[in-house]
């Protein structure tokens, strides 16, 4: 059986669009064909080797690309013209051609005021592995407003109740590892990636995050990477071990 891929993913891998809404619109407007037939739904699966064309011009996938960023505070992970964002860093990387740049997206977002490890790629399989696959632990160095007590550590490991910003629903989240670095400083590992998860976990204990830095994703630790004086590095897939 030949492999299948979502049409939207195939369109985005071509670098012809920088936002998925643009690709969806192209399908809606009848500009996209799959093996010569008009596409109707960008979410449909197509054969991985199908010929997909935009305005009758066949598209080709750009090369898989992996950028590891040491994200600075003050940047958002969304593709937006309104705020400083991580794609500005991507635009400054001359080794990456414009089509490949357009195809890149963040694997799991960090908040505007969070810094540290962020993977930006066009490899949907890697995204699946890190966000939906086996539970890969993300480690955050956290500085808090108030002291973190032993009871707090125990509560974080047991699980605390937080509320989803979008749905208002309550759910439990827990730390899978905690290392104490100081009275108001801990390293905390989580294997989920809910929105504002670390901040919410500390807020559930009546504390507050003062600064947050992602220092690890699985086996990858930020201090072991050689950024060579830059904020980013371009990695090879074989070097990415989680
Ligand atoms: N948890 C948060 O609260 N914020 C992030 O950016 C990442 C994890």
Brief overview, please?
With 242 residues, this protein is α+β, with helices and mostly antiparallel strands.
Structural class: alpha+beta
- DSSP helix count? 7
CATH architecture of the largest domain: 2-Layer Sandwich
> H/E order of the elements?
EHHEEEEEEHHEEHEHEEEEHEEE
CATH topology group of the largest domain: Alpha-Beta Plaits
What can you see in these coordinates?
With 242 residues, the protein is of the alpha+beta class. It folds into three domains: 4-58, Structural Genomics Hypothetical 15.5 Kd Protein In mrcA-pckA Intergenic Region, Chain A (Roll); 66-133 and 221-239, Pseudouridine synthase I, catalytic domain, N-terminal subdomain (Alpha-Beta Plaits); 138-217, Alpha-L RNA-binding motif (Alpha-Beta Plaits). It has helices at 7-13, 20-28, 86-91, 98-103, 124-131, 150-158, 197-203, and strands spanning 4-6, 32-34, 37-38, 45-47, 52-54, 57-58, 66-71, 105-106, 114-121, 138-144, 160-163, 170-173, 177-182, 185-190, 209-217, 220-221, 232-235. Strands 7, 8, 9, 10, 13, 14, 15, 16 and 17 form a nine-stranded mixed beta sheet that branches. The longest helix is centred in the N-terminal third of the chain and has 9 residues, at 20-28. It is elongated. It starts with a strand and ends in a 7-residue tail after the last strand. It binds uracil (URA). Uracil binds at residues 110-111, 114, 196-199, 212.
């Amino acid at each position: 059986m030949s492999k299948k891929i979502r049409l939207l993913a195939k369109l985005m891998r071509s670098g012809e669009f920088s936002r998925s809404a643009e690709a969806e619109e192209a399908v809606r407007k009848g500009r996209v064909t799959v093996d010569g037939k008009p596409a109707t739904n960008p979410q449909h699966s197509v054969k991985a080797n199908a010929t997909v064309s935009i305005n009758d011009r066949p598209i080709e996938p750009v090369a898989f690309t992996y950028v590891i960023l040491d994200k600075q505070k003050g940047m958002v992970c969304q593709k937006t013209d309104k705020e400083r964002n991580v794609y500005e860093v991507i635009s400054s990387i001359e080794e990456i051609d414009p089509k490949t740049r357009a195809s890149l997206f963040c694997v799991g977002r960090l908040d505007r005021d969070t810094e540290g490890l962020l993977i930006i790629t066009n490899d949907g399989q890697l995204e699946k592995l890190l966000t939906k696959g086996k539970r890969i632990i993300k480690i955050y160095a956290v500085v808090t407003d108030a002291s973190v007590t032993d009871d707090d550590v125990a509560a974080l490991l047991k699980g605390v109740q937080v509320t989803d910003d979008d749905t208002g629903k309550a759910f439990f989240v827990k730390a899978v590892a905690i290392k104490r670095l100081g009275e108001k400083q801990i390293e905390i590992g989580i294997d989920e990636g809910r929105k504002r998860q670390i901040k919410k976990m500390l807020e559930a204990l009546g504390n507050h995050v003062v600064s947050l830095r992602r220092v690890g994703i699985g086996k990858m630790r930020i201090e072991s990477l050689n950024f060579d004086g830059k904020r980013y590095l371009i990695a090879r897939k074989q070097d990415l071990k989680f």
